[in-house]
Amino acid sequence: MTRNRAAHFAAAYALFRMAADYADHWGQSDFDAQCKGATDDAPVTYKHENTGEETTVGTKGGRAACTRHVINYTATQGLVLVAGSRLLGIRLNPAAVAGALALSGLTHYAADRRVPNGLLHRLAKASGKERFYKLADHGMNGAYCLDQSWHHSFETFAAALVALGSSAR
What we know:
Blueprint: H1 2-26, H2 30-35, E1 44-47, E2 54-57, H3 59-88, E3 90-91, H4 94-112, H5 119-126, H6 130-134, H7 142-164, E4 167-168
């Protein structure tokens, strides 16, 4: 059983990570990527690529953009996890999968909302990483690197939840 759990954890993590990488980059709309951190105090003006039309987004639109992205992200992870597990002969526990997807989705929203002085920025300040968070030079973007580290960490916990509830077919 321990060997199966370790293999199931590795499979779940690989499936979560692949799905997350796709959904966070290729699957996310440009509008949602640009506007998900908008607030009324720090609005985002989005210029539509094809029409040149501009849309200004505040708090309500920023929350909606982030929610759309997280729904797509979490659904992609769920589909990939279920399909991949079936192909690999891993029986998933629905409650464990639901918990894992909730953990991944909620923590993704918390990090991606990225409002001024948001969660990741406050964590970076508290841990002495604010300068790295603000780094945007030499091909680096500190906020993005910390964002991805956050996602990878919670995907690892989510994969562990899935593995704990899994069994061989």
